[in-house]
Amino acid sequence: MEGASFGAGRAGGAVDPLDFLKQPQTILRVTAWIFSIVVFGSIVNECYVNKDSQSPELLCIFNENESACSYGIAIGIISFFGCIFFFVVDLQFQQISSVKDRKRAVLLDLGFSGFLSFLWFVAFCFLANQWQRTKMGKGALQGADAARAAIAFSFFSIAGWVALAVKALQRYRLGTDMSLFATDQFTADPNASYPGYPTGSGIESTETYQSPPFTETSDANPKGYQVPAY
């Protein structure tokens, strides 16, 4: 059971790239990675605009609140590198032979996915609220599509990371059940005695020698011989 647990095959087995890419967890991870690029890319490229043509200063399009743009960029970058990291972990997961190490990896994935789900929820609410308060000037109209894209993909990222957290939870429960099964079935009782070999087990007995049968009865006193009297 050390080799097969937490939703992966026996340790050391070859990883089929096609099967790996078809896994729901891999698809969700790549999707969340793309969403993060859209969010921080949109904010960096088009969500800093001039307030008017006379002012060269670039301001955040979300109600001129620099914190909104900074938060969106930060959470997008964290999500971007987090997806890459756990993609590599998923790729190397089958090479991990220790059940404890697999458990730590799954718990880390579960905690990170749940935390990112919360951060993306905050990002969606924050950006949407600041966008509602934004006064539509010339600069805001130029970056409106990018701002809406950042808000929309922030919402999509919530669903993506929640799904990843659910998948990690399923893997954790699967691994816990298999570990309990292994404990119940294979833990030896130190006071238990080992059973003997059953009859007809195929184990040869060491006592295989038998005396040859007597074919004729020998006389107690052979003919022509008398016991001398003393």
Automatic annotation (TrEMBL):
Record keywords: Membrane, Transmembrane, Transmembrane helix
GO cellular component: neuromuscular junction; synaptic vesicle membrane
Domain MARVEL: 20-173
Transmembrane segments: 26-44, 71-93, 105-129, 149-169
Bias-annotated ranges (Polar residues): 202-220
Top-level taxonomic group: Eukaryota
Taxon lineage: Eukaryota, Metazoa, Chordata, Craniata, Vertebrata
PANTHER family, per the entry: SYNAPTOGYRIN (PTHR10838), SYNAPTOGYRIN-3 (PTHR10838:SF8)
Protein family (similarity comment): Belongs to the synaptogyrin family.
The keyword Lipid metabolism appears for this protein: no
Keyword set includes Protein transport: no
Topology in the lipid bilayer: Multi-pass membrane protein
Ranges where the record places region Disordered: 194-230
Protein name stated in the entry: Synaptogyrin
Compartment(s): Membrane
Cross-referenced InterPro entries: Marvel, Synaptogyrin
